UniProtKB/TrEMBL annotation:
Gene: Lpcat2
UniProt source species: Pygoscelis papua (Gentoo penguin)
Subcellular location: Membrane
The Phospholipid/glycerol acyltransferase domain, residue ranges: 69-155
Gene Ontology terms for molecular function: 1-acylglycerophosphocholine O-acyltransferase activity; lysophosphatidic acid acyltransferase activity
A biological process term (GO) from this entry: lipid metabolic process
Pfam families tied to this protein: Acyltransferase (PF01553)
Lineage: Eukaryota, Metazoa, Chordata, Craniata, Vertebrata
A Gene Ontology cellular-component term: endoplasmic reticulum
UniProt keywords, alphabetically: Acyltransferase, Lipid metabolism, Membrane, Transferase, Transmembrane, Transmembrane helix
Protein name: PCAT2 acyltransferase
């Protein structure tokens, strides 16, 4: 049992790293030469690639880490709920919610977009960026969330 743990730990780490690199690869492909960089929604194969592959890879990642999540009830569609709230919004567990709901756009601080690997994955989710240095950022964020919510399905849900 202890020996199994010693053997499985590096194997899990390698598996997690491989899944993250795959997610980065798919995010890079989906956003390659996409004009707009957050001002124009991803459409067609790009959007489907993000929703299906990143959702599947994120679920697999959490499974490898030992999490098994069961959804009770029906998840609201984009047209029913263009915005939904996840609370308490304090940890990496938010990624579970994202994976289970089809990889919605998130509200994130702008600095997160420049993080290696994770920044590319985050960019593919078309986040609403919040700049803590910009005094108008709060107003701009509310305006952007409202614009996306009223887009009638052109943008993904916003979490």
């Amino acid at each position: 049992t202890v020996l199994q743990g010693i053997i499985l730990l590096p194997l899990r780490a390698i598996c997690i790293a491989f899944i993250l690199l795959l997610a980065w690869l798919f995010a890079s492909i989906a956003t390659f030469r996409h004009h707009g960089k957050g001002s124009v929604p991803l459409k067609g194969w790009r959007r489907r690639m993000i929703q299906t592959t990143l959702s599947c890879l994120t679920r697999t990642l959490f499974f490898v880490m030992g999490f098994q999540v069961k959804v009770k009830g029906k998840i609201a569609s984009l047209l029913e709920a263009p915005i939904f709230v996840a609370a308490p919004h304090s940890s990496f567990f938010d990624a579970i919610i994202s994976a289970l709901t089809g990889m919605p756009s998130i509200v994130s601080r702008a600095e997160n977009l420049s993080t290696p690997v994770f920044g590319t994955i985050l960019s593919s989710l078309q986040p609403v960026s919040v700049s803590r240095q910009d005094p108008d950022s709060r107003k701009n964020t509310v305006t952007e969330i409202t614009r996306r919510a009223l887009s009638r399905g052109q943008w993904p849900q916003v979490i």
